[in-house]
Design goal:
It is built from six helices and 13 strands. Helices cover 27% and strands 27% of the residues.
């Protein structure tokens, strides 16, 4: 067995080899061999990189349609992160504030209703919506298809610049649905559009693929045919009914409250009252019929007992 060399002996051996005139081996990197001349100086300034992420989670006992909608939203946001479901309703805001260090998007459910939270953690603000007209990608079966992870183009209707609460909502949507530049999971392409429009004080969401005509020989786009671009819907579809805007994260002072919002529990209770009114009318009609029969008895028929013998 040979003895191991000491570090001083190895250093001396390497110095002797360098003095003999041997060419020094270039440094090895992940991209290949790198010469010292091509190295960039360390004084170069690094550009700004947006490292914010969106947290997507939901509450327990969510229905299959709302769960599929949440998975569709996750597939559209390459910069998002999923987390476990939130169990407690009373301490939901405190729990989410602990989970989220940056802005988050929270999907929750109450009974048959779907509520959407958009919050900037930890200082706020936060917005609460009631989600209506939910249609998932699997349900619609549309012909549109775009590259997964590509950066979307966000378009808004002109109504977003009319009121302060719509301007705040627009900024929240830009921060949540806008993919950060040079994100590691995003693609440097723009092949689909997120459309947000306001109609009847509701925010309607649509996702369209940008279909471009290509030449027969190459896959490049002819500049003369740019006006022939079409939009093909991909999905999903949903409608957001704003309820309240809070100053903090998942709580705090109320900055805005929708005066036209009616809780779905109230709508269901009114429907039950209408059905109960129909039943009460039937009962009253039966009692009136009985009272009428008692007040106007029929005369005894003389031939009624003719065939009894």
């Amino acid at each position: 067995m040979g003895k191991k060399r000491k570090h001083s002996e190895t250093d001396a051996a390497t110095n002797v080899k360098k003095e003999d005139g041997a060419v020094e081996r270039p440094k090895r990197t992940l991209l290949g061999w790198k010469d010292e001349v091509e190295e960039k100086p360390e004084t170069d300034s690094v550009g700004f990189r947006n490292k914010e992420k969106v947290l997507v989670t939901c509450s327990r006992r969510i229905s299959f349609r709302y769960r599929h909608l949440m998975l569709n939203v996750v597939s559209l946001l390459p910069h998002c992160k999923k987390d476990n479901k939130v169990e407690s309703k009373s301490s939901r805001g405190a729990t989410l504030n602990e989970l989220v260090e940056l802005k988050g998007c929270h999907l929750c459910r109450k009974g048959k209703d779907l509520y959407l939270w958009m919050a900037k953690s930890p200082n706020g603000p936060s917005l609460k919506f009631l989600v209506n007209a939910v249609h998932t990608m699997e349900e619609l079966k549309l012909t549109g298809n775009h590259l997964k992870g590509s950066r979307p183009i966000l378009t808004f209707s002109t109504n977003f610049d009319t009121e302060p609460h719509w301007k705040l909502l627009k900024e929240m949507i830009v921060q949540i649905f806008g993919t950060p530049k040079e994100h590691r999971k995003s693609k440097p392409y723009h092949d689909h559009v997120f459309v947000f429009s306001i109609l009847d004080d509701h925010v309607w969401f649509r996702n369209y693929q940008i279909s471009c005509p290509h030449t027969a020989d190459t896959q490049k786009i002819d500049r003369n045919d740019l006006e022939k671009m079409t939009l093909v819907e991909v999905g999903p579809r949903f409608c957001l009914n704003p309820i309240k805007i809070f100053g903090g994260s998942f709580g705090g002072p109320t900055l805005y409250e929708n005066p036209f919002y009616i809780s779905p529990n109230q709508i269901r209770s009114l429907e039950k009252r209408q059905k109960a009114g129909k039943y009460a009318k039937k009962v009253k009609a039966k009692t009136r019929r009985k009272m009428h029969e008692m007040a106007n008895p029929l005369e005894v028929d003389e031939l009624a007992h003719m065939w009894d013998e």
